[in-house]
Amino acid sequence: MPIADSSLLLSLSLSIPHAISFSNKQELGKPTDLAIIEVIQQTFIDKVLLDVGLVVTIYDILEIGDGYVYHSDGGAHHKVVFRAVVFQPFPGEILVGKVSECTAEGLRVSLDFFEDVYLPSYYIPNPQHYNKEDELWVWHYDDGGGGKEMPLTLEKGHPIRVMVESIKFFPSPYGDNADDDAQGGGGGTENGGGNHNNNNTATVIDPGGNGGATMITTTTKRQHVPMKVISRIDLNAGQGLGMTHWYTTDE
To answer: pTM for this structure?
Structure first.
């Protein structure tokens, strides 16, 4: 399986509870490795690992230890070593997505599997202005050759190419993420990936320092974005950035 430039292969060693429901005959006959894989997928897929990135998929299972039953829990607990593919774009990386939101503060870009790529207004080339009526940004491009100024628009629903400036993580919904860089968080995700929803909870996983992981589930009156990718398309970021249709010509 090829690993994309913006992804990393992360190895985790954790104690995974293999809980069996005695009221469900199908659960009693389920192989241990299959049950553990299901628990790992439910726990990690489409969740944000704090200061690491978004877990996209489980790559493989390297080791499943013996099961131990504790007096306070009827399920077997196994030490499991597995590898996961994590979305972690690096500063300077180029991402191609689609503009999903356009406000006076900037743009939000969707990568389909991740919705929280932000392009703040100050990273849009100058001179520019925001058209509130049409909800789009306009870059007044001038090639410097004395020719006519060419307005280039940035609008919703169209592909855009951006460069990653930074990644920010927010383990608590009470952190200063509401007004940070882009449009006030602009709607949150429960898991930091997938599709935005109206839930007011967010799950962030702290991988810990000794192979352990802690699930941090928080509830707030506002939606929470556990991971933000801040991007830019200004001239200092390089050439070829911005809306992809800027660089196409009609035959």
So the answer is: 0.72
